[in-house]
Amino acid sequence: MAAPSSPEKTMDKRTAIFLNSAYITSGSEYFPADSEKLQHYIVDFLEKEVGNDLKSLRNVGDLLEKLTEENNVLERQVLTVSSSAPPKVSAALSAAEEATCSLEALLQKEQFISNMLNQHLQGAQPWMDNLGQLLNQVDTIERHMKYLQCLQHIEELSAAVQQCLMTSSVWEAIRAVDSMAALDAGLSESGCSHLQDFLRETLFFWHKIIKDRLASDFEKVLTQLHWPIISPPTQSLTPTANYQEISSQLELLVTQLLALQTSDDLLSQRTLAPSVSSTQPVSSATPPSQAPPLCLPIQIMLLPLIRRFRYHFYGNRQTNSLSKPEWYLTQVLMWMGNSSTFMEEKIQPILERAGATISARVELCRGLLSLVQEKVASDACRLLYDDMLFCHLVEEVLQFEKELRSNHSYPAVLPGLLHLLLEDTTLQKWLIVEKKMAVEKMDAMLSAEGAWSSQYKDISDMDELKAPDCAETFMTLLQVITERYRALPCHSAQLKFLGLQRELVDDFRIRLTQVMKEESRCPLGVRYCAILNAVNYICTILGDWGDNVFFLQLQQAAVSLGEEAVLGGLGVMEVGRLASLEGSLFEGLLALLDRLKGDMMGRLLEWTMREITEKAKPYCQDRWLSLPSQHDQSTMSLSSSACPMMLCVRDRLLNLHQVLSLSLFQLAWQGLAERLDNFLYQDVILSNHFSDGGAAQLQFDMTRNLFPLFGHYCKRPENFFKHVKEACIILCLNVGSAILLRNLLKETEEDTRDWAGAGDPPPESALHELGVYCLASCDVLILLNLRASWPGQ
Fold first, then answer.
1. Phi/psi at 474 (nearest 5 deg)?
2. How far apart are CA 721 and CA 678, in angstroms?
């Protein structure tokens, strides 16, 4: 066995290995790179692992083995990385070189193919040019063939129609005409204008022949059925012997005419489209939706009526009068009414069996209505400079529309005559004339002899509002205007009339204000009170209108359309309130009318109080201090000085009750009671001293005489005289109670203790026990000091 080496040699060897290990791993995160830092690190490491304890040196071997093992692991890792990296890099480089070679080969191949393709295209270009020419020639020949085939088809259809008509095969002829109409619809996008013209001319030619033949037969059958029905039948006609044959012919002809409807509509559209687009300007009077063309049988049935209408209401006939629009309007309504039974019993069942979803009666009304529309539009333009005749035309048109919708059940979705009144010039003229007529009527009604008297003054049940005749006539005028424009199919036009109504209300308010100022010298007069009733009546009606469904709908329309004529001057908040239906379109007017009503009521009460206070002067100066006690008089009676004041109050209450409406009188007597309460409290009670007899007399005058005057209009009149009632309670207290109350109030006034904390009741509770709720403690002290009968005095 080898001798063990000395500890010093072992230590040096281990240190060398350790330093070698540290040197190898100097690039890692454990050791710094330079030698000086390495040495410092080793010294620190030894200090940490060994320290100053020599016994710990026995652990150096373990530490050395650990470091040797880590060093070996690091060496193996380095050798592994260094040995495996070059093959991978080489393989990647080889793959890249192979890819480069393949790419170059592909590029060369692509270039070769491209050159060959260009050579092939250059060689094939002449062939392609020749083939293109041949294809163009084939396409041209094919289009020519189709053109000729279409032309041949048209000629075949035309020959078929001719053959069918010669053999009286009407149904086959109609089918051939329908085929022509379908072909025309198919060629609508084609550029063959000459072919289209030829087809339409052919279609129109045969359609007219078939239509004329069917129309001639149809008119003969209608004549046998006594059509047209000009006047209401006086007796039911007995069916003729050949009634069944006539009915069969009628059904056959109506069905055949319905089958011809498609081509008839097509030709009508082709004929009307150019003229409408070139001759008719766009107008606000145009109905919002165009109705479909009239049913062909109905068109034929309308022909005799159209001839009669044009004969009587055009040209130089006496029946064609601008001042009598009701003549032709009434005549058309009569034709509608007289023909309705025939249409429903004879024509409607045939239409239903033929599968047509139309109403014969409505179709006839539509046809007649087109005549009236044309006539009204012509007359309206000629009457723009004659106010009276224009107003008359508008009235007749509105009446016609009303009867058309109600009596003849004309559908609301179909336009009547009202859209003609919405044309810009006509509507503006209507508004101007409406305002002019309304202003003239206002002048007349205010200057009339009975303008300020109520026509229901002798009927108490109907005269609660006591509205004067001028106010009632004015609101009736506004209501009539509302009824006139209510049926208009346009919210914008309705809002223009609403703006006119608001303007008229404001004008009438100004006129009432002017008359009121003239009558303000005598507010108790009948005319002044009538003006006040008129203002209150208008406020009441406008308030009801604000909750009316029609005006609420107009309110929503005004917000949605942003109509400046109605919403002008309103802020965002006001418009928002209108949108949420919290306000109304009449709020501004109601505010002005309420202010006028308040001013007039205040002036009326002020004048009344002036008269009462004049009568009350002796009562205010009465000798309240020297009046004997109550027990000295066997019976109490009203003070003689109070009689003029009481009579004046009674007479004024009766007068106001007679001349004012119920709601206004409620305001009047309550306002008078409030003013009279303050007057008596200030000028009678606080201005005098009272003995026991004087206080008792005052209480008797008030409770037995004054309060009952107002008791006719409420159950507890004393509640409207709180100051006087409570003052009488204080003045009439017996001496003991008065002394206790005075001491309590004085202590409360002088002492600043918290009553709630002290446990003693506050003075208000004592006053409440006596029935005093309105007067304050300081006021009660003043009243107690007005008593003359105190002990020791």
1. -65, -45
2. 8
